[in-house]
Every structure is written in C-alpha cells, then in structure tokens.
Amino acid sequence: MTNWTRIVRGTIGVAGVLAVAELVSRAGFSDTSLPPASTVLLRAAEFFGDTEFLSAVGSTLEAWVLGLLLATVVAVAVGMALSTTPWLNRATRVLVELMRPIPSVALIPLAIVSFSSITESKVSLVFYSACWPILINTLYALRDVDPLAKETLRSFGFGKAAILLRVSLPSAAPFVATGVRISAAVGLVVVVSFELVAGNGEGVGGYLLQTQSGGGRPDLMLAGAIWAGVLGALINVGLVALERRAFRWHAVRTEASA
Amino acid sequence: MLEVANLSHAYGDAPPVLSSIDLEVRPGELVSIVGPSGCGKSTLLRCIAGLQAPTAGQVRLDGKPVDRVPDNLAVVFQDYSRSLFPWMSVRDNVALPLRRRRKNRAQRQENAMKALESVGLPDAAAKYPWQLSGGMQQRVAIARALAYGPEFMIMDEPFGSVDAQTREDLEDLLLRVRGNSGMTILLVTHDIDESVYVGDRVVVLSKGPARVRADLWVGLPTARDQITTRELPEFVHLRAEVGRLVRGREAADEPKS
Amino acid sequence: MTAITGDHPAERPTGTNGRRRRPTGVPGLRILTGGAARLWLVALLVGCWEIIARTKQDAYFPPPSTIVRVFHELWFSGPATHLFLTDKALDDFQPSFVNLFCGWALAAVVGLALGILLGRSSVAREILDPVLQFGRAVPPPTLIPFFIVVFDFGAQMQISTIAFGVIWPVLLNTADGVRTVEKLQLETAEVFGITGAARLFRITLPAAAPKIFAGLRVSLGFALILMVISELIGSTTGIGAHLISSQQGMELPEMWAGIVLLGILGCLFNAVFALVERRFLSWHSRARGLDS
Ligand SMILES: Nc1ncnc2c1ncn2[C@@H]1O[C@H](COP(=O)(O)OP(=O)(O)O)[C@@H](O)[C@H]1O
Ligand SMILES: [Mg+2]
C-alpha cells in the first residue's frame, strides 16, 4: 500500500462526502436551512480576507495558547513535586479524584462572574481544564519510570535532582506530551464554549453567535465550524509530528513491544 | 486421502520458503514432519489447511482442491496460547467449535468435558486459559481439536512446551485416539525421537527453500510403548538416521519407503 | 487512525515496578492512619475556605457549608416517597439525563457499527480517514448555533450536539480494536467454522472489547460536558440551565451547588463505568496482569 493510493482514496472520501452534502441540500430533503457544501466552502475561503473573523480566531487562539502553556508548566512542575514527596502525593490524590470529574464547562458561569476581563476568564478556564490530563499523565509516567535506570544512576553517586532530570523526566516526557495533546483538544472546546455562553462577541464562539441573529446564516456557521475543525486538526497533526520528532527513541521502543 | 502436488510458496518478494513439495497421506496414517527450525514447516501446514494460498502447486483433500479450510479438518496451532480465547473459560474454548456440529448446549458442554478429561484437565474446565501453565494451555488446544471430531488433524509442534512426563502421556493419547477414531494426522515436531515414536512415516524437510529430503517408513509395530519401543534396535537406528538427515550430514535425496 | 484512550494512562501497559511494601501493624490503626494521610489536605482546604469565606463575606465564594445546605435544599430535601428528590430535582435531572443518555447511546450504536465496518475494511478506512480526522477535530460546541437553526432549541438540538461530539472515541477505538484482533484468533475461528455473525459476536467484538470500552468511557465523560454546554447555551431546563440562570440571578450558592452536583455526577459515571468494566473485562486486566 503506497502513500499515493492512500492520498487518492482519502481525496475520494472527502469529495464523496462533499458531493453527498451538496446533493442533499440541493435536492431539498431537509428544510432550506442546510446550505450547499459549495457555498459553505466558499464562505470558509472568504474568511481568509475577513479581518473581523480573523481577529476572532486570533483572540480564541491567544487565550487557548496562554492557558495551555500555563497549564503545561504548572502541571508538570506540580507532578514532579508530588512524585518526589510521597506524603503530599497521597494527600493530593483524593483532591485530584474529586476535582477532575467536574466537567470544566460547568465552571463557565463561575469564570464569567469571578474575573473582570474576558481574556482572563478564558485563560483561567483553559488553564483549569488543561491541567488535569497533563498532571495525571505526568504522575503516572513518573511512577512508572524504570527503577533499574534510577538505581543505575544512584549507584554512580548521582543525587535525587540529577536522577529526576536525567532519567525520570526524559522517560516520562512522551506521556506528558500525550497529556498536552489531549489538553489541547479539551482546551479548544472549552474556549469556544465559553465564548458561546458569555455571548459578548469575543472569539470564534462570539462570531458564531452573531451569525445567529436575524434568522441566522447557517452557511457562515458551518464555515466557522470548518475553520475550527481545520485548526483543531492542524494543531493535533502538529503536536503528533512534534512528538514523533522529539521522542523518536520512544516510538521505536513502544512499537517494538507492541 | 491428502495429496500435496508441486507445492511452492514465497512470502511477497522474499525468497521462496517452500519449493515443489510432493506429499501423500493415506487415510488413517500418522505422518510426522521434521526439519530445522525456520525451514517452512508451519508454512506448509498453513497451506495444507487452506489458511494460506500457496504461490504454486495444489493441495487436494479426498480429491477436492483445498481453497479454504475444509470442515472435517482441525488445526492445533504452534502458538497455542494466542489461539485460545482469553475471554472464554477453558470449557467454552473447547466447546466453541462444536457449534458447527449442530449440537445443543448440553451436548457441547458434555463433549468438551470428555475431551478435557482425555487430556487430563477435567479440573481446569471453569478456569480461564491465562490461569494455566503453558503446557496446560497446549493440552486445552489439543482437547479443542479432539472435541471437534475431525477426520483430519494438523498439529504444529503440539507438545512443544509440556514437561517430559506429560509429553509421553500426550503422545500415547494421540496414538490411542488415532487407533479409536481412525483419524488422519499430520504432525510437525522438532523432536526427532517423537517423530519416530508416533509416526507411521517420517518426512524430513531440508532448509532454504524447504524440500522433501526424505520420506521414511517407520516399520515399528503398531502397539507402541514408551519404554520398550524406544529400546528396539529399529527405533534406535531410525532415530539416528532421521537425526543425520535433519542435520544434513547425509545426502539422502532418494526417499525410501 | 489511532485509538483514543483519553486521560486515562492506566490504559497503557504498566511496567513491572508496581512493587509496594505493605505496612505491617494493627489493621484498624493502619486504616485510620492511611485515611488520615489521604484526607488531611482536602479537610484542610475545605476548612480554610470555610473560614476565609465566612470572614470575608465574598459573595462569589460562599462557604462550603452554605453550598452543601443549598445543594441539599434544592434537590434532596424532598419526601421519602420520591427518594428525597425535590420537584426541582426531577425537573432538572430528567431532561439532562434523557438527553445525555440518548445522545451517548446514539453515538455508541452508530460509532460501533461504523467502527466495525472501518476495522474490517482497509479500503473504507483509507477513504474515510481524512473525513474522520477532520470530524473528530471539530470542537462540537461550534456546531451548536447551526444545530439551533436546524432543530430549534430543545432536546433534538442537544442530543445531536452530544451525539456528534462523542461518536469519535467510540468509532475510532472500535475501528482500531477490530483492526488489531490477533490474526491467529481469526484463523482459529476459521478452522473451527466460526464465521459470519458468530465470529463477530464471539471473537471479534470480545477481542476488541477493551478498546471499545475505553472509547465508551471517554465518550461518556465528553457527553456530560456537552450536555452541560448545550444546556448553558440553548435550554431553559436541565442542570446546565439551572447553572446559568442562577449565575444571571446572582444566586451564587445555587450556582456552586450546581457545580458540585456535576462533579458528583462525573464521579458517579466514572464509578459505574469502572464497575461495568470490571464485570465484563476482568479477563483482560487479569490476563495482562499475569503476563508481566
Ligand atoms: N507471514 C509471514 N510473512 C513473511 N515471512 C514469513 C511469514 N511467516 C513465516 N515467514 C518466514 O518463512 C520462513 C518459514 O517460517 P515457518 O513456516 O514458520 O518455519 P518453521 O515452522 O519451520 O519454523 C521463516 O524464514 C519465516 O521468517
Ligand atoms: Mg513453526
């Protein structure tokens, strides 16, 4: 199976789905609210020149990136601190188990009332929801570090910090990265949700809400969703590629054992 | 009657694994196949069982070409632990193939218990495969094939990981089952003694690509015994000959049968 | 296509270094000290929050005792004949739960069926791969405005949002699980004449079950999130609607009670799912545990 057949088949799939969507809307199976696929794609392309939409995307991405970065730094640091202090780890486990299941979107109303600026609310919300996957992956990964590797270093007289830096972190890194990737997707959902609920025209969510006024512009709504999907897919592909490059040794190891 | 004619096989573009294999197995016969490891024994069995289409040649069972797994044929796979289903109890594993035999649940369970008893594992029925040792798992795989009641049985190193005592018991069980049911059996083994002890014939394969190097008739009496048969001068002689053939010390290209 | 295991790293094979020294001593005492070692931090934090909230009288952060009282009054102070549920509880819970489970079940059924198809056909997989990767990447809330236009406000819109959002983990995990069934297991089935539906239900699906369950678990978590968000935006009933209306009415203890309720629901779903998994997948974890 070469790469070419993959690409050809994938293209056929995309074209097929678009064709079916086009036909369904043109044939008028559903009511008039379903715009033809070609119109939606056209609108999505027009967004490239739409400064209002682009600035909305920018504001969404800004909050998302900030929250995710903050969460990564904090969660990894906390994870490391916890895994080196067992008594604290034991005590925080219950806390984590209590807080993690709270659906982060449930905190949207709280975020709306407790921060003065919209950006602040968005970043905090992304931060909160992105923390958990990263923290939990960090904790699990650090717990599973090969003790033999640690003991080897210890036998050469290395201290705790050196072991953490040279053995624990590198071997935990791939799983932390997986956590970041999960958090990235969750974070995007949370930002857009916040914008949709807060309803003051901020970001992609705010833009989508505006298109609802005056009977609604389903073509713009779907074009916006396509942008969001493409962004999400690009982010995911980018992060996967980054992981592959950074942790080539890891991929080799897990594939060999799978 | 199994006929293998001019069978060759290659995996993709790799050099051929099997080259022009000819083999005949008459009804009720037990034929052992020995050969160096990696020479293509499992590949040969998979082609015969209809699990794999050979690149050339033909397999016929009772005159009909084999293009999928015939329904009177059972296989005991070399990789027994992965061929048992971990989500089913041992009894359900053994009873599973009986669905095809149009039996009701009670009959299936009863047959499964009988087969488990015959391999000495009646107590393991309610356990799961992964709770058993390798040797016990192998016996479950054998019990499953026996419960199926095939006319033709293909076994790929079926006693590979059992201890010596159990191995002898299973060899005798196999001979007994064959005697009672008249099953035709094709058995691959890497144990030269075993190939001679259980076989009516021993087929020796050479390596790279596999060809039939020798096809020896085992002229030992049908009733065999672990102690006395292995003492017979014919046994000792045959064993040495097979051993030499497997190691390739003797250019015995002529099959003597 | 890769399987989604969500933020549950317990899914990946753990090393052999799970050795734990068991403390020795009086068992009762051990449980007590163990419980204290686990719970002191939570108790401390709740205590601090209570004290600070009482002294500062911050309207946004009511003390936990108030939240618990409001939580109880709102939903669980009903008559015993109603299992102590209040009328408000019935009004809030029912639409939320119905939408949640309808959306999740719809996604599960469609995802499972499509996943089996994709798992068995590599051609279908390659044709649909880009479409699925894209569909999975669309943040489901972005579709809510569109669903509102199509279905108007109400259950249909919410169920569609949930179903669209949570189908991906089920679909991709099922496809992955079905695709990676051991070849030898399928061959064994073939040898013994287990084909067609029998093979699907007795071999393929059980073998893929660990991955399918992982997908179902992740999507149940997503479903709760999407239930809330769809109610925050487009509903006047349900727990999410309670949340947003109490925020808008500045009834902050009520809002906090809603957050607590959703947290408890999240925990509950996790626990129930863990039980179901233990019941149906014990063979998997135990077989793997013995392997290492
Ligand atoms: N599925 C496969 N694809 C490619 N090569 C294979 C495959 N199965 C076996 N082989 C190769 O064919 C040769 C014979 O294998 P096999 O029949 O398993 O030998 P044996 O059973 O005698 O040990 C080996 O060199 C092995 O690497
Ligand atoms: Mg072999």
UniProtKB/TrEMBL annotation, chain A:
<comment type="similarity">
    <text>Belongs to the binding-protein-dependent transport system permease family.</text>
</comment>
<dbReference type="InterPro" id="IPR035906">
    <property type="entry name" value="MetI-like_sf"/>
</dbReference>
<feature type="transmembrane region" description="Helical">
    <location>
        <begin position="125"/>
        <end position="142"/>
    </location>
</feature>
<feature type="transmembrane region" description="Helical">
    <location>
        <begin position="163"/>
        <end position="194"/>
    </location>
</feature>
<keyword id="KW-1133">Transmembrane helix</keyword>
<feature type="domain" description="ABC transmembrane type-1">
    <location>
        <begin position="57"/>
        <end position="243"/>
    </location>
</feature>
<dbReference type="InterPro" id="IPR000515">
    <property type="entry name" value="MetI-like"/>
</dbReference>
<dbReference type="GO" id="GO:0055085">
    <property type="term" value="P:transmembrane transport"/>
</dbReference>
<dbReference type="GO" id="GO:0005886">
    <property type="term" value="C:plasma membrane"/>
</dbReference>
<feature type="transmembrane region" description="Helical">
    <location>
        <begin position="102"/>
        <end position="119"/>
    </location>
</feature>
<keyword id="KW-0812">Transmembrane</keyword>
<protein>
    <submittedName>
        <fullName>ABC transporter permease</fullName>
    </submittedName>
</protein>
<keyword id="KW-1003">Cell membrane</keyword>
<feature type="transmembrane region" description="Helical">
    <location>
        <begin position="220"/>
        <end position="242"/>
    </location>
</feature>
<dbReference type="Pfam" id="PF00528">
    <property type="entry name" value="BPD_transp_1"/>
</dbReference>
UniProtKB/TrEMBL annotation, chain B:
<feature type="domain" description="ABC transporter">
    <location>
        <begin position="2"/>
        <end position="232"/>
    </location>
</feature>
<dbReference type="InterPro" id="IPR003593">
    <property type="entry name" value="AAA+_ATPase"/>
</dbReference>
<dbReference type="InterPro" id="IPR017871">
    <property type="entry name" value="ABC_transporter-like_CS"/>
</dbReference>
<dbReference type="InterPro" id="IPR050166">
    <property type="entry name" value="ABC_transporter_ATP-bind"/>
</dbReference>
<dbReference type="InterPro" id="IPR027417">
    <property type="entry name" value="P-loop_NTPase"/>
</dbReference>
<dbReference type="GO" id="GO:0016887">
    <property type="term" value="F:ATP hydrolysis activity"/>
</dbReference>
<dbReference type="Pfam" id="PF00005">
    <property type="entry name" value="ABC_tran"/>
</dbReference>
<keyword id="KW-0067">ATP-binding</keyword>
<dbReference type="GO" id="GO:0005524">
    <property type="term" value="F:ATP binding"/>
</dbReference>
<dbReference type="InterPro" id="IPR003439">
    <property type="entry name" value="ABC_transporter-like_ATP-bd"/>
</dbReference>
<keyword id="KW-0813">Transport</keyword>
<protein>
    <submittedName>
        <fullName>ABC transporter</fullName>
    </submittedName>
</protein>
<keyword id="KW-0547">Nucleotide-binding</keyword>
TrEMBL record, chain C:
<feature type="transmembrane region" description="Helical">
    <location>
        <begin position="221"/>
        <end position="244"/>
    </location>
</feature>
<comment type="similarity">
    <text>Belongs to the binding-protein-dependent transport system permease family.</text>
</comment>
<feature type="region of interest" description="Disordered">
    <location>
        <begin position="1"/>
        <end position="26"/>
    </location>
</feature>
<keyword id="KW-1003">Cell membrane</keyword>
<dbReference type="Pfam" id="PF00528">
    <property type="entry name" value="BPD_transp_1"/>
</dbReference>
<dbReference type="InterPro" id="IPR000515">
    <property type="entry name" value="MetI-like"/>
</dbReference>
<dbReference type="GO" id="GO:0005886">
    <property type="term" value="C:plasma membrane"/>
</dbReference>
<feature type="transmembrane region" description="Helical">
    <location>
        <begin position="256"/>
        <end position="276"/>
    </location>
</feature>
<dbReference type="InterPro" id="IPR035906">
    <property type="entry name" value="MetI-like_sf"/>
</dbReference>
<dbReference type="GO" id="GO:0055085">
    <property type="term" value="P:transmembrane transport"/>
</dbReference>
<keyword id="KW-0812">Transmembrane</keyword>
<keyword id="KW-0813">Transport</keyword>
<protein>
    <submittedName>
        <fullName>Nitrate ABC transporter permease</fullName>
    </submittedName>
</protein>
<feature type="transmembrane region" description="Helical">
    <location>
        <begin position="97"/>
        <end position="118"/>
    </location>
</feature>
<feature type="transmembrane region" description="Helical">
    <location>
        <begin position="29"/>
        <end position="52"/>
    </location>
</feature>
